[in-house]
Write the structure tokens for this entry.
Amino acid sequence: MAEPKMPHLGHNCHLCYLINIDFHKYNLEDYKELVKDPAVICRACARTAASERNLCEPEPLDNQ
């Protein structure tokens, strides 16, 4: 089976990809760490995360 082509660099660490491969079902504690104390929101899917590296189009939640 061919490796899936990522739409952009780092997408394999983004929540939209991780949810799509059921990461949260098999790695719940690791997933919780990614979303605990969210600091950024994704403009594409509206998921929140602790780090911008886990979102496709991150924007700070606190726009101050």
Residues 28-35 form the longest helix (8 residues).
